[in-house]
Amino acid sequence: MAIIYSIIFFISLYVIFIIWLRIQHPYWSKQPVYHRHKIIYKFYHPGMLKKEPIEKDIYVDTKNIDFSTFENIEVISKQLSEFLKFHYQNNEYVTYQPTPESIKSYYMCKASNSYICFLKNKSVFYKEKSQDVEEKIQYIGCMSSRPIVVLTKNKKIDAQLVDNLCIDRKYRGNRKVPTIIQSHRYFTENKTKKGQIYFFKNENNNNFNIVPFCKVDCCLFDMFTWKTPKELGQEKILQITDITSNILTDITSNSSFKNKIHLDIYTLRQLILSNEVYAYCMVIPNKTLGTYIFKKSNTIYNNETIFECIGSIKNCKNDLFVQGFHHSANMACNKYKHRYIVIENTSNNNIIINEICQSKKYIYNYYVSYYFYNYITSQVNPNESLFLI
Fold first, then answer.
1. Beta partners for residue 133, in sequence order
2. Sequence-ordered strand ranges (E) for 52-154
């Protein structure tokens, strides 16, 4: 009898938790994501959940959402840049300042298959020096998505990378975020005539009881406190350019990482051409010993710019590999006038971080998480994963 009571007790607790979750997170608790409380997902990963376009629900707003592709990219890039600069959640130390040119580089090669939505709101204003009122329409939120390829568990998954989700400060809350997400999904899937798998990066601590695909530790360093790297021997550091951009795709595709999440080759080439991505190889004749991939972050910390090391691939001993990183990072720092670097602990970056932390302290340490939406799979090790997005 005691066993029966214990079972009833734990079932009751589980039901109470589900009810609390649905009250606390009415939107996220019902979404097709890897919820921690779904015990079946501990043993079974079904992959894609919803293969048909979603139907309109209470979160879909067809009246106040402007949805389009990026084919009118000049106008959209400028509009998106201005909105993000003004409304992104900055603080006194860190500001995000994406330029129209930077946004354009990520979307122009897949303009017809990338999507943007703006949430608009009607406001009433009194005319200057008059009692008359006028109605003004302004944008209060946005979200975009673009195609990426995910290779995991020997499966190729075509997904949409969700980006640039931002809400006007005055309108945060009141389910504006669910409205943008669900409306964007509704328009995208009804345009493509099929359900979509989405992939997104979360840089705050809100997990909404969702298991991430990958949780990544990040460290911010001040490169002005680093010493000039020691001279290399016969090894050379080469920056990957437009002419050699195919080398990068060959190296990444042949790397041994179990999970690879990357942009298409045309977008990657455009990012290298426009100096949004800087990639370097340490080579000797007929062999690449190390590859280091950096990204311009469009973020300013203490009035100095930040760039990110988003991935590295090791084909030599650890000490030489780290030495090659220092030369590559130093070349990028000098050429593109950065001061701070964020190193994401993915791919072989753990070797670099561990070596640096023996002599230098990071300024700031934080976590980011990558999530699937409408796809269930197990969590992966960040150092078995390469993210080029």
1. 126
2. 65-69, 94-96, 115-126, 133-152
Residue 10 has pLDDT above 60, yes or no: no
Between CA 134 and CA 125 the distance in angstroms is 5
Amino acid (1-letter code) at residue 229:
P
| Angle (nearest 5°) at CA 224 between 223 and 225 | 90
pLDDT in tens, 239-277: 998 766 677 888 888 899 999 999 998 999 999 999 999
DSSP helix, strand, coil percent of the chain (3-state; round to 5): 35, 35, 30
End-to-end CA distance of the chain: 56
The C-alpha angle 364, 367, 22, rounded to 5 degrees, equals 135
Task: Please give the Cα distance from 191 to 108 (Å, whole number).
Answer: 19
Structure tokens at 232: 């290399």
Beta-carbon contacts of 252 under 8 Å, excluding residues fewer than 6 positions away, are 260, 262, 291, 313, 386, 388
Greatest mean pLDDT range, 222-231, 243-252, 312-321? 312-321
Q: Which residue has the tokens 């090659």?
A: 324
Q: Which two tokens stand for residue 175?
A: 């389910």
In degrees, to the nearest 5, what angle opens at C-alpha 295 toward C-alphas 312 and 105? 130
d(CA 342, CA 325): 13
Mapped onto helix, strand or coil, the DSSP state of residue 202 is: strand
Mind giving me the DSSP string for 214-254? Answer: EEEEEEEEEGGGSPPPPPPSS-EEEE--TTTHHHHHHHHHH
- pTM reported for the whole predicted model: 0.91
How far is Cα 387 from Cα 240, in angstroms, rounded to an integer?
A: 18
Which residue ranges form the domains of the chain, and what is each CATH number? 216-370+381-388 (3.40.630.30)
